Amino acid sequence: MTPTYIRLEEKDLDTLISFYIAHYNAEGGTWTREKAYRRLHQMMTMEDALVFLQFEGTTLVGFAMGYFKCFDETTGFFLEEILIRKDMQGKGYGTDFLCYLKAKLQAMGCDWIELLTTTEKRHQSFYGKNGYTQSERLVLEFLDLR
Question: Which of 98, 71, 74, 73 is nearest to 84 (CA)?
Fold first, then answer.
């Protein structure tokens, strides 16, 4: 396993859209091309956003997207989403991606990474083994407007 990484550019967006739709619709989602384009393009063009694609040879294995959060004395990165192809999960690609992202962000002067994830045991285990811990100071508050 020797993945390579590229920063998402407009020319790569169609590939990522197809990847995104195939993954989430296989899980029962109802993503359309228009909705996926809007989500990914919005993230890609957000100020201070970073979106990376992970490849094994010419195969798109996964992607990660997020954005920098600047405060008075610190800069963090909010990891909005990381996704590895189902058939490539459990083979170290996610861990490698998080290591790559961590090194890249540290080199850019980032002090911390935060993310929201589900309470599913597999997600908690994955992030835990990669050094992520639950915050003792932050609580997710949610208001459903439907």
Answer: 98
